[in-house]
Each structure stands twice: as structure tokens, then as C-alpha cells.
Design goal:
Layout: H1 2-26, H2 36-46, H3 52-72, H4 97-106, H5 121-135, H6 138-141, H7 144-156, H8 160-173, H9 179-184, H10 189-202, H11 207-219, H12 223-236, H13 241-250, H14 252-262, H15 270-282, H16 286-299, H17 304-313, H18 315-328, H19 333-345, H20 349-362, H21 367-376, H22 378-391, H23 396-408, H24 412-425, H25 432-440
Helix pairs in contact: 1-2, 1-3, 1-5, 5-7, 7-8, 8-10, 10-11, 11-12, 12-13, 13-14, 13-15, 14-15, 15-16, 16-17, 17-18, 17-19, 18-19, 19-20, 19-21, 20-21, 21-22, 21-23, 22-23, 23-24, 24-25
Length: 442
């Protein structure tokens, strides 16, 4: 429910931004017809089950609609009468907004018919910002949704600095908002950097802000500062495995030292142990990695990731552990896949194919199992695919699977023919052209 409602709310917010821009540009009453996408959003909300989440979503929708309607109803003011400070704003108003309003008051934005159509998104956004400047009041300034609206309008108007300032104001009013990370990623990295540093001065223990700052440093190709920022995010919330994963990606050796020091307070955290093992592995400390993966597996035997890692390092040990897991969960296709991979590692292709077929008995369209079977025993893979192909001769994926099996068997001509047929059945699937090009010598 959370995922679906969030998507609907995001769609609705986008629709309201466009609707507000169009309504506010002319300073007129909103036209009666709703934008089609907005109608679709409202209809989608109406179809959701009656739950607390739905009521929360409907309440936010009503607030957004009321806010836009209130601002849209403000009549346009003559430029000579417009104050540089919005009604209701004072010395306590956020400083980021006031220079923008002064600029608008001194240099009114007028459509230039010689340079662009009046309906371009940038001009519409600039016109909307002028109308918003006339309609802001103290109550509106405390609404995080308003600042999100301003962020989008500033981006449409081509002003990323003002967009970052507006987004920061929205964050200050709701530091828990999930929208922030997604929106801040759409702002140029150099502008984003300064805005995030300012926010961190006010929220020095906010791990997500440190993570966003680290992502920004990576975009700016500054791995040292990125590592330092991820370290601060990890210190703020060591239970969030995202930060330890990012540290290992950047510098396994340095990450191992940092994660070792943090284990005292989190010895029961299998994710942290697994990331430490990844760091050991990336630092060529294979025996330490194996022992740490074992500890992670002991803490959470149901997390198959640790079985996978153990199997990659010690296939024979992994096979024993996987057979024990299968005895407890014989219907789990993932364990059968892991067993097939382990047998392939030690060169037992027959046992590997048997394991992959067991996985396919439990999930017939398991792509990993089909690929593994084709690699372990191409002929048995083709035998398994034959009846499926007969039932669905126009399925491009099955043609592609047959091509992979023929290629593994060394029959490049048959593989090419299968890939070409798959491409003819689904020209939009980008998987087939590279394979065709490779076998054609293009």
C-alpha cells in the first residue's frame, strides 16, 4: 500500500504543479475541466481499499488542492504595486525566498514572442512564481508542500539555486520527508553541494543528509570526501546497511578498519558482518571473509546471501550447508539454484543440471535456473525448453533461451537464428541486438 499510495501522491503533486502553473500564469479562475492525468490520479485513489493509509493520502490531497486553489485565486497585482516581500512575510521569513521576490519585482518577467512560445514550461513557471510571490502568507510559508511546489517551479524556470533553497526550506519543515533524496538528486551537483552543507549545519546528525552529500561528492568525482561523508552517515546510523555497503564500494581496506571498530555495539547485526566480510574479500583477506560470512549466517540462517557468499569461497562447504537447508525447505527454488551453482563450481555438471531442474519444477520461469541449466547441460536445457516453445512459439524470451543453450553447445549458427527470431518477435527488447551483432561479427 505504501508504495502504491506514494506513487499516486507523487503523480498528483506533479499534476498540481502543472495545473498551478497554468492557472496562475493568467491570474484567472481555474478552468472547469481537470487535466486528464489528475483525473486518473483521483480515480486511482478512489479504487484503493478504505484504510488509514488511504485516509492519510486523501487528507494530503485535499490540503494540496486547497493550497493551489487559494494561491490561484489571488488576483494579479500591477508590477508597480507589488512589494518585494510577500504579504504576511517578515524579517523571520526564510532568507532564500526574498531575493527571488525582489528580483521579480524589479524585473517583471514577460513572455517574449520572438524567442519562445508563451506556453513553454520555463515561461509558465516564471509567470507562476510571480503569482505565487503575490499570494504567499505566513501560513503558506510553513507548508512543506508549498516549498516542494516552489522547488519544481524553480527547476522548470531554469533556476537550480532557487530550487535548492526552496527544497532546503521544505526539508527544514519536515526533515523526515521521503521526497528529499529523490528531488535533490535532480539538482546539479555543485548547487546541491552548497545546499546540503548548509542543511548539515542545522542537522549534523541526519544520516540521510550525509548520504546525499556523499552521493554528491561521488558525482563530483571526489572519492575521498565521499568516503568521509558516508562515514559520518554510518556513525549517525550504523544499523542502516546502505552506508557500510557504500563504504565497502569506495575503499574496502579503509572500510574494513572502520567496520571492525564499530562491531562492539552491533555484534548481532548480520548485515554489518556481511558488509565487513565483503570488505575483507575486497582487501584480499579471504580467510577472514569466510569466517565473517559464517558468523553472519549463524545470526540469520534464513538470509541466503551468506550461503551464496560461503559457496563462492568454499563450494564443498557450501554444498553441505545447502543440502541441509534443502532438507528444511525443499520447496525453496533459490536454494536449489545456489546448489546448482555450487556443483558447477566443482565441475559436476550433471548434479548442477539436476539442481537447476529442481528449481524449475518449483518456478518454471526462473531466469537464473534456465541460464544455469543451459550452461551446465545445453542439451537437457533444450529438452526442457522444447515443450514450452511448442506452447508459446511467439515468446521471444524462449527463443532467446534456446539461443543461449545452442551457443553454450558451440552451435553459433543456430544461436544466431534464435536470437534473430527473438528480435523479430520483440524489436523493442534491447537484449537481442548485441548478441546478434557479436555472432554476426558486426
Amino acid at each position: 500500500m505504501e508504495s502504491k499510495s506514494s506513487i499516486i501522491l507523487g503523480m498528483l503533486c506533479a499534476c498540481l504543479v502543472v495545473a498551478a502553473a497554468l492557472w496562475l500564469r493568467d491570474g484567472a479562475d481555474p478552468p472547469a475541466p481537470q487535466p486528464p492525468a489528475l483525473s486518473e490520479c483521483v480515480a486511482a485513489v478512489d479504487e484503493l481499499p478504505d484504510t488509514a493509509e488511504l485516509r492519510r493520502l486523501q487528507s494530503r490531497i485535499a490540503e494540496l488542492e486547497a493550497m493551489v486553489e487559494r494561491l490561484a485565486s489571488v488576483p494579479a497585482q500591477p508590477e508597480t504595486e507589488r512589494s518585494s516581500t510577500p504579504p504576511g512575510a517578515s524579517a523571520g521569513s526564510p532568507p532564500q525566498l526574498q531575493p527571488e521576490l525582489q528580483s521579480d519585482a524589479e524585473t517583471p518577467v514577460q513572455p517574449d514572442p520572438t524567442s519562445a512560445p508563451a506556453g513553454t514550461s520555463r515561461q509558465v513557471a516564471k509567470d507562476a512564481l510571480q503569482r505565487l510571490a503575490a499570494g504567499l502568507n505566513a501560513e503558506a510559508l510553513e507548508s512543506p508542500e508549498l516549498w516542494q511546489l516552489l522547488t519544481r517551479l524553480h527547476l522548470l524556470a531554469g533556476d537550480p539555486e532557487a530550487a535548492m533553497a526552496s527544497l532546503a526550506e521544505s526539508f527544514r519543515r519536515d526533515p523526515s520527508a521521503e521526497f528529499f533524496g529523490e528531488q535533490v538528486a535532480g539538482i546539479p551537483a555543485d548547487v546541491r553541494l552548497a545546499g546540503l552543507q548548509d542543511l548539515l549545519a542545522d542537522f549534523p546528525d541526519h544520516d540521510e543528509l550525509w548520504g546525499d552529500l556523499a552521493d554528491t561528492y561521488r558525482d563530483l568525482e571526489n572519492p575521498e570526501q565521499a568516503f568521509a561523508s558516508y562515514s559520518r552517515a554510518f556513525e549517525a546510523d550504523p544499523r542502516d546497511s546502505e552506508w557500510s555497503e557504500r563504504l565497502v564500494e569506495l575503499d574496502p581496506l579503509q572500510a574494513a578498519n572502520l567496520l571492525e571498530r564499530s562491531l562492539g555495539a552491533a555484534v548481532d547485526d548480520d548485515e554489518l558482518l556481511g558488509n565487513l566480510a565483503d570488505a575483507y574479500r575486497g582487501s584480499a583477506r579471504e580467510s577472514d571473509a569466510l569466517e565473517t560470512y559464517r558468523r553472519a549466517h549463524e545470526i540469520d540462517p534464513n538470509d541466503k546471501e551468506w550461503l551464496r557468499r560461503i559457496t563462492e569461497l568454499r563450494p564443498a562447504e557450501g554444498i553441505d550447508a545447502l543440502q541441509t537447508a534443502i532438507a528444511n525447505e525443499p520447496g525453496d527454488h533459490e536454494i536449489w539454484n545456489l546448489l546448482g551453482s555450487a556443483y558447477r563450481q566443482i565441475g559436476d555438471r550433471t548434479a548442477a543440471a539436476d539442481a537447476y531442474l529442481e528449481a524449475l519444477d518449483r518456478r518454471p520461469r526462473d531466469g537464473d535456473a534456465i541460464a544455469g541449466l543451459g550452461a551446465a547441460d545445453p542439451e537437457r536445457a533444450l529438452d526442457w525448453l522444447a515443450p514450452r516453445h511448442a506452447e508459446a512459439p511467439d515468446n521471444d524470451e524462449i527463443w532467446g533461451d534456446m539461443g543461449d543453450a545452442h551457443l553454450n553447445a558451440g552451435r553459433t549458427g543456430e544461436a544466431l537464428r534464435c536470437y534473430q527470431q527473438a528480435a523479430a518477435l520483440d524489436p523493442d527488447d534491447g537484449e537481442w541486438p548485441p548478441k546478434i551483432a557479436e555472432l554476426s561479427g558486426d
